[in-house]
Write a structure and sequence with these properties.
alpha+beta, GMP Synthetase, Chain A, domain 3, 9 strands, KhpB, RNA binding, Protein jag, Jag_N_dom_sf
């Protein structure tokens, strides 16, 4: 017997027929391997058969071969159709499998949207009344008890650092806001370049104070907040006059604490207008003042 290999059964049948100089019906054919298209080239298989003319095969060997794929048993066209249908079934099965895997991945990555503490901090003044209600249950404590606990926590946090910091002031700014002030020869080091340390420290303290007591935070470090407020108020003075004249205005992009200071100042100046923080396509934040609040909501 000789072995023949090709892309399809039709091709290997033709090769065998040409090799032995006879028709396919005059050959005994054993299919060694069915052809397979595979997926994206993976799992692709060629057709492999073994063939021999019937007259040269001994009768005793033929008796032991119970199953033969011969031309007289099945038409090539019918066989090709069956192979094609089998391939289509395999492709559909693979598509269903990929679809199920995608659904599983989507379930794994579909984490419920939970507003982060940083988002709460950034959107603090974005609420209509300038305050945010805390949905979680918070154990109410006496103000003096809160001040004592926060003061002890701050001392514990900074006692082993290398910064020269005086006694940390902790007091209530209003009923919903805690005021914390850092002073001392090294307190300015807590601000960092462009205020990045100040912002990080404010987030840390805010997460703790808001989570435990449901309070907002006003943080002062070496008069950084005071200077920022002074600078933004000077910037807003001519803008306030423009708003009074034209009715609306959009500030330049403001970074960090500046956007919150500007928002608070403009809301105090124009309580009847729509004043809110917006974000442009580059991710920069600015304050928008509009004549009609209801149209922007």
């Amino acid at each position: 017997m000789k072995q023949f290999e090709g892309k399809s059964l039709e091709e290997v049948y033709e090769l065998a027929s040409n090799e032995f100089g006879c028709s396919i019906t005059e050959l005994d054919i054993d299919i060694i391997q069915q052809p397979a298209k595979g997926f994206l080239g993976i799992g692709k298989k060629s057709a492999v058969i073994e063939a021999i003319p019937k007259k040269s095969r001994r009768k005793d060997l033929r008796k032991h071969k119970e199953h033969k794929f011969r031309k007289k048993d099945i038409k090539i066209e019918e066989f090709s159709k069956r192979v094609e249908e089998s391939h289509k079934k395999d492709e559909k099965a693979q598509q269903r499998k990929r679809s199920e895997e995608r659904k599983k991945e989507q379930k794994l990555h579909s984490v419920p949207k939970v507003e982060t503490k940083e988002k709460i901090f950034d959107n603090f003044y974005n609420e209509d009344n300038g305050r945010r209600e805390v949905s979680k249950i918070i154990v109410k404590k006496d103000k003096d008890e809160i001040l004592e606990e926060v003061n002890e926590g701050l001392i514990s946090l900074f006692k082993d650092t290398c910064y020269g910091i005086d006694n940390i002031k902790v007091e209530f700014y209003d009923d919903n806001t805690l005021y914390i002030e850092f002073t001392g020869e090294d307190s300015a080091l807590l601000i960092g370049k462009e205020g990045y340390r100040y912002k990080a420290l404010s987030y840390i303290l805010f997460n703790w104070i808001n989570e435990k007591y449901g309070l907002m935070l006003r943080l002062e470090v070496a008069e950084f907040l005071k200077n920022q407020e002074s600078a933004i108020h000077n910037y807003l003075e001519p803008i306030i006059e423009i708003i009074k004249e034209k009715g609306s205005f959009k500030t330049k992009p403001l970074d960090g604490i500046l956007v919150h200071i500007a928002l608070k100042k403009l809301r105090e100046e124009f309580p009847e207008k729509y004043v809110a923080v917006k974000t442009n396509i580059r991710g920069d934040k600015y304050v928008l003042v509009n004549e009609y609040r209801s149209k922007e909501q």
